[in-house]
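User: Okay, second chain of the day. Same drill as before: sequence in, structure tokens out.
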Amino acid sequence: LCSSSGQVNLFTLLGGGPDAGGTWTDPSNAVTDEFFDPSVDAAGAYTYTVPAIGNCAADQSVVTMQVTQAPNAGDPGAVTVCSNGTTIDLFLQLQGTPQAGGSWTGPGSVPHPNTYNPAVDGPGVYTYTVTGQNVCQDDEAVVVVSENLAPFAGLDNSISICSDAPSFQMVTQLAGNPQNGGTWTGPGSQPHGPAFDPAVDVGGIYTYTVTGLAPCAADVATLTIQLTTAPEAGVDSTLSVCSTNTSVDLFLTLGAGADAGGAWTDVNTSGALTGSVFNATLVPAGTYSFIYTVPGSGPCAADDATVTVVVSPGGDPGIGGTDTICGGLTAYDLFNSLSGTPDAGGTWADVLGTGALTGNLLNASLLPSSGQYPFSYTVTVPGCGDATSLVYISVTPFPDPGGDTTLAVCSSSQAFDLFTVLGGTPEPGGVWTNAGGTSVSSTFDPAVDPSGTFLYTLPGNGVCNDTLATVIIVVNYPPIAGADAQVALCNADEAYLLINSLPGAGINGTWTDLDNTGALVNGSFNVLGVDPGAYGFMYVVPTAGCPSDTAYVATTVSEPVTVTDTIITCIATDRTYTISFTLSGGVPSTYSVSGVPGTLTSSVPYIFTSAPLLESQSYEIVVTDVNGCAPDTIRGVSGCDYDAPIYVPESFSPNGDGVNDVLVIPGIEGFAGNTVSIFNRWGSEVYKAAGYDNISVRWDGTYEQVVIPGGLPTGTYYYVVELGDGSDVYKGFIYLNR
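Assistant: Same drill. Structure tokens below.
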């Protein structure tokens, strides 16, 4: 056996049919059981002894066990290497206690040495095999090799950058196509983002690190950045210079950051620039351009800035003086008091702070009529400073007619003096005219004078013109809201326009919902669904100048009578039917049912039941109450279904007692083309009629076709009824009982 074989039963190895129940001894003659385990038991002769029976001696057999040691390839192992790592010994990666001297195969069972080189070998399963001897089979163990890709940070590089260059991603400047996702450190090993901004970052060595997946070490690459400061020519600017300036240093306009040592270019060849100094007296007024250039170095291009010089002459504020104006002017243009040719665009100032000046417009009405008031006009020219003129204004009092007024008065108001309605503080002594210039009285009487425009005029003086004020009078007539009214409404109706209850009322009034029903919208009472009851509304008509007028509308809202549970009862015996239904809502004590006869119960529930109606008779019933709120009309026909359309009774008794005195055939009245014939026992026709209707055409048991007409005797008679519609003829016997 091989030492790795499982245990065996020695008894099964005996030949010749041995007896059971014997005992076993091992090679050392020690007693053992029948089971042999090659991994622990010793090789040699194992003796089986069967004891003696009677005169028969004991018997023995021997099983000789030979054990060959099993090969040991070790236990499986696993290893992870880096793609740029060193060669490893695969045997050292096996677990357990493997035997030396075995052989290796790689992926695909290809023979392989006992070493693994990441540079040439690929990851996978590598198998170690130890050959077995005699009955022992070969033993195998595997090493699973995983290989992680080594990180690549690229190749070192050096670049030159100008400080005014745009920001860039540093990884793009490394050689060798580096991996993304690494981290950067700057000079002094300080952490740094992936972007380099020449405007804020410093030159130096920047290190890019890509972390490896164990067992791979991190990879680094460096980017050396040589940063050159960009030349700074300053900022473009525009400079205003007065034509009298002889020395203006243009360099000062370039800003504090401009580099010295640049060169100037006189774009317009003005000849007025020496170095950086401009002399405005050498050129006429106008615009001149000068370019300042600072040369570049290394990766930095030259920089330039343009200075635009605007040469201007001084400003002209005009010639001031003294002027007298009317105190009634509210928007006097002070330019009218300047002589010469003042420049536009200057600034007016109220020297004494009177508050009467807005821009260049003076409100003289705000100034007292005594004294002079100075106002200055200043023209500012860039580069040349301010030029100012003064105007002294005196104010002459003006005739004050007061303020314009618009007044609404009522035709029923008292007469009044127009002077009393002028605004402000009008002076007396003026004259009144209408809009056509005709003189009118200063007294206005609304009862007789019409609406109109009236002018109050005061004569002027040497400085001020005539002045006037306007009074507009509108005469209105007293408003009419109409007389108080009462209205009965039904809550089954749509909205009711309340103004309809106030004949002659003005239409410009305002309605108020006195009971807060919430159903008043633009003068309409949305009565639909409002609970029955009394609701009041107030209508107020205003008119300017007149007292308002008020009217009240009292509404009474009723609900309609409701009909439910309509039932038709068919009475087959006499081909009639009745109608019954339940009434609710409204005023029960005043319920009214018309259209058919019947009875109405006097308490809840209120049920109406009609008298029997002929089967062919349709019905139209109107239900209402004292309020007449949405009367309900019920229409229809019987709807009864009988085996035959008419019913001929078996007997009748024309004995004059008022009961059953005529032959009534229910249903026949629905067939206008019918004929009815009656025969006695001998076959003689005793009655015949067309259009039998149980009312005007009916048989009362008499016989008219004899010399002496009279009632027929008691007995059995034969009838024939034809409906005239092509249906079967009805025949049978009827008993006449006196």
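The first strand starts at residue 8 and ends at 9.

User: Thanks, on to the next one.
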